Amino acid sequence: MLTGADLTAFVTGADAADQRPDWPELLNRMLVLSTGRPWREQHPGLADAGTTASGDGLQVTGRVGPMRVQVLARLTEELLELDLQWHNDTDIPVEDLVVGLRLPGPDDAQVTIPQVILHDNPSADPDRVVPHVSRGGFVTELHRLPIPAVCLQETGGHTLTLVSWPDPDEDADGRVRYGSLGAVAGTQTYALALSGVTLFDGEPDITYVHKAKTSATDQGYRSLAPGETLHQRFLVHRGWAEPGHEFRQLVQLGRDLFAGGERAIAGPLDDRRHIDLRLAALDARAFVDGEVAGYQKFPSWGEPRKRAGRPAVDFLYGWTGQCLRLAWCEAWVGLERGEPHRLERARAVTEFYLNGSATGVPGLRYNSYLHDDRRWQGLRRRGAEVISARAYGETLCALADLVTLLRRHEVPVPATWRAALAEAAQFVAASTLPSGLVPVGWTTDGVAVEDPPWSAGIPAVRALAKIAAVGEQPHLLTRAVELADAYHDLHARTFDRPFAHS
Question: Which of 20, 218, 226, 278 has its CA 20 to 30 A from that of 262?
Answer without folding.
Answer: 278
